[in-house]
Amino acid sequence: MILTSILCMAINLYNEARSTTDYEQQRINQVVLDREEYYHTNACKVIFEPHQFSWTIHTRKRLKFANYNEMVRYYQLDDKRQFLRAIINAQLSILTKEEIRNKKILNYIDNSIKPPVWTKPLHVALRTKNFTFYEIK
To answer: Closest Cα to residue 4, out of 63, 73, 82?
Structure first.
């Protein structure tokens, strides 16, 4: 089994935002899709780029597995319902990406932390309950 972009995005959502709303999860995937387009790469490379998503600091990139269960164990996807929800939101993000293309959102931060210095020159595109999203101009 080789991970596809949808599975990489779902694993990312599960680890970054499983307790958030579907809307927030889809906006996080907008960041991944916008980076994918901006940097001419793919979702798995975007997600596992060093220091881009907090959970990847402690989890090494692995894209090949003998089967689905091995992948679930490796990425500790213990809540099957939340992982299925993340897969659905990853698919919806791809299907609706053209509808939300009015902004290029390349960064976001969790609202529970103090905004890092690198956010100062950025323009806030969207604030939700849990995240602040930044666009490039």
So the answer is: 63
Q: Is the pTM here over 0.85, yes or no?
A: yes
- Distance in angstroms (rounded) separating the CA atoms of residues 88 and 22: 9
Looking at the DSSP bridge assignments, the partners of residue 64 are: 2
Quote the CA–CA distance of 123 and 137 in Å, as a whole number: 8
Tell me what pLDDT residue 99 has. 57
Do residues 76 and 13 touch, judged by C-beta distance below 8 A? Answer: no
* Full 3-state SS string of 1-63: CECCHHHHHHHHHHHHHCCCCHHHHHHHHHHHHHHHHHCCCCHHHHHCCCCCCHHHHCCCCCC
Whole-angstrom CA distances from 57 to 52, 85, 100, 127 are: 9, 24, 29, 25
CA distance 9 to 98: 17
Residue with tokens 């091995």: 70
Residue 100 has pLDDT above 60, yes or no: no
- pLDDT confidence bin for 98, thresholds 50/70/90: low
- pLDDT above 80: residue 34: yes
